[in-house]
């Protein structure tokens, strides 16, 4: 996908480095989130208002979703899940700003996120159950354990692939459609697509975050 103009790519060329557009915009999203967190927490009040109130609503919403999906044990993984949710949401939304590319429209970024979920799922499983975590791969019937083990391994290896490709496909496709509309009719016509883009950004954030919670919650459960 070739953008007609990318602000950070132009900045990269002026500096004389070549890091990659998706890396530059990943750093940009990280900087936005850091500044947002600092601005919201620098003067915390008992009666929140403005940015603090908005961030508290977002944080409490993620916390409620974690508790409903993962149970009380899921609260320990709030920093990880909230980081996924906020990073992916902001990354998706900057696609609506001309001159900005969403890092989630690049398979490398999504692959890194998906592999983090994959690694954390099994780290959590081993930490919670020890060697008994292998029972998750054996199935309920002992005689079928060898077959179930192979099926479970394939299923677990497919998880990062499906996580990364789902997010990449939706964001990459939306970027292409939006660029075509901007090229053909740069004024009124792209507006409905941009409104749809907000919906797509939120849905894809929710899907990725929900699946990450389900996978980790599965590792926390006792094998049957």
What are its keywords?
7 helices, mainly alpha
How would you briefly describe this protein structure?
By secondary structure, this protein is mainly alpha-helical.
Written account of the structure:
The protein is mainly alpha-helical and 224 residues long. It has one domain. Helices cover 72% and strands 0% of the residues. The chain contains seven helices and no strands.
How much helicity do the residues have? over 70%
Distance N to C terminus: 47 Å
User: What proportion strand?
Assistant: under 5%
Q: Determine the mean pLDDT.
A: 83
Radius of gyration based on Cα positions: 20 Å
Structural class of the helices, strands and pairings? mainly alpha
Please tell me what the overall shape is: globular
Secondary-structure element string: HHHHHHH
Major sheet summary line: none
């Amino acid at each position: 996908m070739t953008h007609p103009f990318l602000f950070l790519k132009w900045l990269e060329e002026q500096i004389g480095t070549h890091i990659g557009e998706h890396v530059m915009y990943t750093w940009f999203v990280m900087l936005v989130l850091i500044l947002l967190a600092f601005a919201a927490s620098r003067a915390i009040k008992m009666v929140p208002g403005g940015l603090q109130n908005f961030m508290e609503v977002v944080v409490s919403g993620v916390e409620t979703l974690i508790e409903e999906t993962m149970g009380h044990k899921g609260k320990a993984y709030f920093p990880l899940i909230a980081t996924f949710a906020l990073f992916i949401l902001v990354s998706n939304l900057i696609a609506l700003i001309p001159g900005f590319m969403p890092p989630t429209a690049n398979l490398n970024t999504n692959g890194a996120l998906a592999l983090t979920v994959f690694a954390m799922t099994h780290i959590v499983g081993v930490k919670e159950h020890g060697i008994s975590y292998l029972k998750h791969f054996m199935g309920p019937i002992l005689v079928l354990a060898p077959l179930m083990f192979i099926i479970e391994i394939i299923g677990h290896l497919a998880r990062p692939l499906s996580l990364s490709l789902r997010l990449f496909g939706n964001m990459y496709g939306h970027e292409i459609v939006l660029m075509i509309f901007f090229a053909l009719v740069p004024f009124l016509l792209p507006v409905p697509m941009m409104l749809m883009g907000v919906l797509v950004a939120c849905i894809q954030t929710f899907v990725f975050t929900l699946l990450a919670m389900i996978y980790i919650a599965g590792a926390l459960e006792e094998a049957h």
